[in-house]
Specification:
This protein is of the alpha/beta class. The protein is about 55% helix and about 15% strand.
């Protein structure tokens, strides 16, 4: 298991809902003996925050704010290859007898296969193995070719994060003379991923999937729902990720100017 990946994800969990709000409530409880008013405020704030971030009404709008625009009527003239980013392995899947693909990653494969069959462009899959086991890209290739009957030309299996997805994918694509790509990921992840691929020297056409459901609002949208807390988790993750990557680019830019 990659230590840097483990530390990064541990810090992320501490900063993201629901754990950040639960920790805030625990701090409030601890303060109740010494600073009762502040303790109560923290507990109430954490309760309200957890309630709001669990409601479909808030969670859907929170996540939708990070989404890139959908790719409408692709023709194949926009780019020369398709890159699908990994989004999580299904470790030791008992029904398959080995590791497979889950959740958002499967949505990306579904859309990437559809796009490849529509525009007839070669595919690159990107995803490493920071948590051990086979590289996610190898599993993605297997699923695409076996279940979606879509061939994969390039496999990038070294990356541990979005920045490395871009760096290592660009190396393979440039070697093949590819400079313009369709980038397939969750719609809310693309605004953070696109700048990394552009920094790696590629022209990117956003090809998002997994858009937030825009069904009409009902009274149920104002009641907590555990499933929608995941929307808020992803949105908060993207917010922190954008800040982190932005700081990294700023530091890198300053270092280059001082050399």
């Amino acid at each position: 298991m990659n230590t840097s990946w483990l530390i990064t994800n541990l810090l992320a969990v501490l900063l993201l809902p629901p754990l950040n709000l639960l920790l805030l409530a625990l701090i409030g409880l601890w303060l109740m003996r010494r600073r009762r008013t502040l303790g109560k405020i923290l507990i109430i704030f954490s309760f309200i925050g957890l309630w709001l971030l669990s409601t479909p009404y808030v969670a859907k709008r929170y996540l939708a704010a990070f989404e890139a625009a959908p790719l409408v009527n692709p023709t194949g003239h926009e780019a020369d290859a398709i890159v699908i980013l990994g989004g999580g392995k299904y470790r030791h899947a008992p029904e398959f007898g080995n590791d497979s693909i889950k959740g958002e990653a499967l949505e990306r494969l579904h859309y990437g296969a559809w796009l490849a069959q529509r525009v007839h462009k070669p595919l690159l899959v990107s995803g490493g193995a920071p948590d051990g086991g086979p590289a996610e890209a190898l599993i993605m290739k297997t699923v695409l070719e076996r279940d979606f009957h879509t061939p994969v030309r390039w496999v990038e299996g070294r990356s541990n994060n979005t920045r490395e997805n871009a760096l290592y994918s660009a190396q393979q694509l440039k070697a093949a003379g590819i400079g313009r790509i369709y980038l397939v990921s969750q719609a809310w992840h693309l605004p953070r991923a696109i700048p990394e691929f552009e920094r790696a020297g590629l022209v990117v056409v956003p090809a998002g999937t997994g858009f937030v459901n825009t069904a009409p609002t009902t009274p149920l949208d104002f009641l907590p729902n555990g499933g929608y807390l995941k929307h808020s988790y992803h949105a908060s993750h993207e917010a922190i990720g954008r800040i982190w990557y932005g700081l990294h680019r700023l530091i890198h830019h300053k270092e280059r100017n001082t050399q």
